[in-house]
Amino acid sequence: MTDRYEGSFFGRRKGKPLSPRREALMENDLPALALDLGRPAPGDLRELFGADVHDICLEVGFGGGEHLLHRARTNPSTGFIGVEPFVGSLAKAVAAVVDEGLENVRLYGDDAVDVLDWLPEASVDLAYQLYPDPWPKKRHWKRRFINEQNLTRYARALRPGCEFRFASDIDTYVDWTLRHCRDHPAFEWTAETAGDWKTPWDGWPGTRYEAKAIREGRVGRYLTFRRV
C-alpha cells in the first residue's frame, strides 16, 4: 500500500463533554455500528449491514452528519460507511442512527486512511469528501487529505466507472484538489460546463459547514471525478 503522511489529517477530536445519553450510546450502541478493522473486511461489504443493500457509499469526514443521514434516509437500499474522528459529531450520528433505526449505516471514528486501506479492492460505488478541513496555512498543506497517496487509496477502493465527489468553499483547496486529481491517472474530472461544478448534486441537503460558508460570503464548489 502507498505511504501515509506521518501525522494527523484532522485536528482536535474532542470538544464539549457528551450528554449522559450520548455517552451511553457511544458505549453500548456504537460497537454494533462500528467497523471492526481488527478483522479482515468481508469480500462483499453488503454483509456489514443489517439492511438488504445493493451498493456501497463512503463518506470521509461526515461532520455534523447532515449529508450522510439524509442520504441514508432517502436511499435505504444503499449501505453507507461514514468516517468521522470528531467525537461529538460521531456521537450525534450514533444517536440518529439508533433513534431512527437506520440499518444501512456503519461508522468509524478514527483515521479514514485506515478504512481506505481496509476496504476490499473495487468495493465502493460512490465516495464523498465534503468541506474537509482546508488547513489554510501553506505550512500545513501537507495535512490536506487530498494528496497522491490518498487518491490512490480512493482509486483502489472505488469500482471503475464510479465517482469520487468533493466539495469545498476554499478556493485554494478546490484548486489543489483539481490539480491533484488531474495529475492522478485513475481519475478524470467530469465537468463539461461551469454549472457542473457550481451546482450541488441531486438530492443535496446542504451541510452546516456549507451554511457557515454562505453566511461568511464564500461559495461552495462541487467537483465530480470518475474512476477510470
Order of strands, widest sheet: 3-2-1-4-5-7-6
Share of helical residues:
25-40%
**Rg, Cα atoms, Å:** 17 Å
Secondary-structure element order, N to C: HHEHEHEHEHEHEHHE
CATH superfamily of the largest domain: Vaccinia Virus protein VP39
SS content category: alpha/beta
Low-confidence segments, given as residue ranges, are 5-12
Number of strands: 7
What does the largest sheet look like? 7 strands, mixed
Gross morphology: globular
Function: Catalyzes the formation of N(7)-methylguanine at position 46 (m7G46) in tRNA.
Binding site for S-adenosyl-L-methionine: 59, 84, 111, 133
Binding site for substrate: 137, 169, 207-210
Pathway: tRNA modification; N(7)-methylguanine-tRNA biosynthesis
Tell me what you see in this structure.
- With 228 residues, the chain is of the alpha/beta class.
- It has two domains: 14-54 and 74-120, Vaccinia Virus protein VP39 (Rossmann fold, 3-Layer(aba) Sandwich); 121-228, Vaccinia Virus protein VP39 (Rossmann fold), CATH 3.40.50.
- It contains nine helices and seven strands; from the N terminus they run ααβαβαβαβαβαβααβ.
- It has helices spanning 20-28, 30-33, 66-74, 87-100, 112-118, 148-157, 171-183, 195-198, 208-215; strands at 55-60, 78-83, 105-108, 124-130, 158-168, 187-189, 221-227.
- Strand 1 (55-60), helix 3 and strand 2 form a beta-alpha-beta unit.
- Helix 1 (20-28) crosses helix 4 (87-100).
- The longest helix is centred in the middle third of the chain and has 14 residues, at 87-100.
